[in-house]
Amino acid sequence: MNVPITEAQERMAVLGAMHVLDSESGPSLDRITSLAAFAFNAPVAFVSIVGDDKQRFISRIGLPVGETDIRFSICAHAIACNEVMVVPDLREDPRFKNNPLVVAPPHLLFYAGAPLVAKNGVAIGAMCIMDTKVREFSEPERAQLSTLAQLVIAQLELRNMSGRLEPVSGIPNRHQFQIDYAGLAERHSGRRMFAVLLDVFDIPRANEAGQALGMRPLEVLIRRAGARLKLALEGLADVYHVGVTRFAFLVDLPSPKELEALVNELRQRMSRPLMAAAVPMSPRFHAGICAVTLGADTGDDVIRKVLIGLHESFEARQPFAWYSEERDNRMRRGYRLAADAERGLRKDEFYLQYQPRYRACDLQPVSAEALLRWTHPRLGPVSPGEFIPIFERTALMEAVTPWVLDAALDQLVAWRAARHYLALSINLSGADLSSEDAWTRLRSMLEARRLPFDCIEIEITEGEWLRADSVAGRQIRAMADAGIKIAIDDFGSGYSNFGYLSDLPIDTIKMDKSLIDNLETDPKAKPKVMAIINLARELGYHTVAEGVETPAQLRFLQEHGCDQIQGYLLSRPLNAEALLQVFSDRGTGESEDKASVNS
To answer: Which H, E and C letters describe 115-138, residue by residue?
Structure first.
């Protein structure tokens, strides 16, 4: 049996399909509303949307309310007309003489409304003007108001086009978020709200699911997650699909505590399994949240801040995290450094210092490590612990590494010209070694300066990239075959995969400073350091302890057979001239015999 669809049901279906009521207001319509008020010299102009039981004014000027009960809706009558409806004096019309807008402030008397008719012929509301005085409305004015109504419906339908909807979920996208937020900020400047960014299915797992199941089941899963979130926030907030698996919304709640309660409730709802290709998948839930001030924060600011909170929740392995201004400033500073690095190289802001390494048994200097330093013109001295990770995450190492190699090798040439035959350690990153011509380029630099290959040691930080069968592994082997020493830097700082030690031509293991720092406070640190020293000895490697700062640390390392010591206790990093003085003071005639890295 076919049940006839009522006019109201058809209208509500159109409103739902067009997402007209998803936003608190129609910010993209405000200019049209302003134009209507100006063109007709009317104190009140608005766009109304007629629902089942309420009429909402999604864009308005001069109207003190955002919605009215459908029983008092003048526009509910206007949408039944095929033309502009004009009421010169509302007091004279029995349908409207007791309307709250007539009998109470603002005491409106005149009404003109042009129906908003969708493409399928269904009227969903009206473009209206009102006045506090009785007036007539000419035919040309009716035509102008009808034209404005057509502009409104065109804008609403444009909003619903794919450019503003995420195709997978059918939910408004980030572009629409920016538009809606700008309108909200313009109309409610200064209001405090909360923004939330949810990741319902982390990217690595999404990629894995896509490979195993194909993209269609994955899209179904994301679509269902979006629908679940919309249902959970119905009547409270509009949802925007702003990333592959990420959804954002703004919500007006009294306190951070209530927002956290909402996020926890969403977590419970969103974490229930979803089916994808007959496989139950458990959505992940991470959220970044922040307080925003409309008008002070831009739409870009909001997305950026909740993204900072989201990644903090990832790293902390917590369901949600608040935006951190400290983290924000740190990241902004990092990218400022990245932007300034190439200029810094050209302006000689970078320089090298050299930290001696000492033989543990007699504390005689045996070699030195070249360390990159940067004095920023505005930020002052910047720690390599801050700028090196930034360079490694970007493409900057491609410019920085050749500069370091040139500067270090030129210094070696200058020392050797003065009959000082120091051995020098130089750090290279995984990215530096992951090129098929890494060794070829280094060899050319050494040969151009007529430097022997064994005058340098290459220090590399361990990681998952360090495999014998990789490009980096082949470059390391080629360097070692030519006589270059290879050292593993920061050993024991986290990765510590002992497997590659027997597969790659390693000469030296440099124990990370974090291990040495804890020798006097952590009972487990001493067995770790002893185990590394013993393992290295069994495998034929030398050991170097980095960051030695106390006599107690030094004694322990000497007593347990560590080969070399490096740290502030014996020497801070020095300039080239001061380093030569260290070697001259040792009284071994450095100018007469060549130093060996592992002597």
So the answer is: EEECCCCCEEEEEEEEECCCCCCC
- 299, 178 Cβ separation under 8 angstroms: yes
Bridge partner list, 197: 248, 288
For the chain, how far is it from start to end, CA to CA, in angstroms? 96
Nearest alpha carbon to residue 63 among 113, 142, 130, 8: 130
Q: Classify residue 297 by its DSSP letter.
A: B
Q: What are phi and psi of 299, to 5 degrees?
A: -60, -40
Which residue do the tokens 């899209």 mark?
219
Q: What is the pLDDT of residues 497-546, one digit of tens each?
A: 566 677 788 899 999 998 899 888 888 889 999 999 998 898 889 999 99
Longest Cα–Cα distance of the chain, Å, equals 115
Handedness of CA 581, 584, 585, 590 (dihedral sign): positive
How would you classify residue 452: left for phi > 0, otherwise alpha for psi between -120 and 50, otherwise beta?
A: beta
Q: Write the CA distances from 496 to 467, 488, 509, 511, integer angstroms.
A: 13, 10, 11, 10
Q: Give yes or no for a cis peptide into 106 (omega within 30° of 0).
A: yes
Q: How far apart are CA 425 and CA 359, in angstroms?
A: 15
CA dist 368 and 457 (Å) reads 10
**Burial zone of 569 (CB within 10 Å; 0-12 exposed, 13-18 middle, 19+ buried):** middle
Whole-prediction pTM value?
0.62
| Tens of pLDDT, residues 502-515 | 778 889 999 999 88
| pLDDT per residue as tens digits for the range 319-378 | 999 999 999 988 888 888 888 888 888 888 999 999 999 999 999 999 999 999 999 998
Q: Which residues pair with 114 in a beta bridge?
A: 127
Q: Is 90 in contact with 102 (CB distance < 8 Å)? A: yes
**Element of type H or E holding 74:** none
* Contact residues for 283 (Cβ-Cβ < 8 A; gap 6+): 200, 201, 221, 225, 270, 271, 272, 273, 274
The beta strands (E) that lie in 252-306 are given as: 274-276, 279-281, 286-293
Q: What are phi and psi of 181, to 5 degrees?
A: -65, -40
Question: Which tokens hold the place of 201?
Answer: 């299915």
As a residue count, the chain comes to: 599
Q: Which position has the token pair 């003071």?
A: 585
Helix, strand and coil content of the chain, in percent to the nearest 5, comes to 45, 20, 35
Bridge partners of residue 113, in order along the sequence: 85, 128
